[in-house]
Amino acid sequence: MRQSRHGYTIIELLVVMAVLGILATAAMPLLELTVKRNKERELKQALWEMRRAIDAYKLAYDGNRIAKVSGDNGYPPSLLVLVSGVPDRLAAGQTIFFLRRIPKDPFAPSEASPEQSWGLRSYTSTAEQPKAGENVFDIYSKSEGVGMNGVPYKQW
């Protein structure tokens, strides 16, 4: 009469552990790729949102909704102005807001504030040599990384 044994042998457990290790090793690059893709999507969305707000500020300035200053070119003096708003000349007592909040660059260091996470380009600087100045004409990522499309994040 035979006794039936229940359970797994040590060899079976080792084989299962080896297979699980191989699967986990193969899944890690896919996970990293997914995280990078999500950060790039966040970066595109943040750049689009911020540039749209800068353009809306310029349109409001050109439409005489914002008080004009001599020698000013109509771009916001800082990113904070887009959030804090400006008085609307056409609707007395009301404020025009262009952003609810300044989004943070997803590739910026965690200790950087949202305002500090972006590189600023003034109206007088070139796209190849962006420099901050008296206004905010454009923004860019300060990250040294390169996107999955082969273009550095600074050039997005």
Features:
156 residues; mainly alpha; transmembrane helix; methylation; Bac_GSPG_pilin
The number of E-state strands comes to: 4
Q: Choose one word for the global shape.
A: elongated
Strand order of the largest sheet: 1-2
SS-based structural class? mainly alpha
Largest sheet: 2 strands, antiparallel
Q: Mean of the pLDDT scores?
A: 91
Q: Which runs of at least 5 residues are low in confidence (pLDDT < 50)?
A: none
Strand content: 5-15%
Radius of gyration (CA) equals 26 Å
How many DSSP H or I helices?
2
What percentage of residues falls in helices of 4 or more residues?
A: 25-40%
What's the N-to-C terminus distance? 76 Å
One letter per element, helices H and strands E, the order comes to HHEEEE
Pfam families: N_methyl (PF07963)
Organism: Undibacterium flavidum
Region (Disordered): 107-126
Protein name: Type II secretion system protein
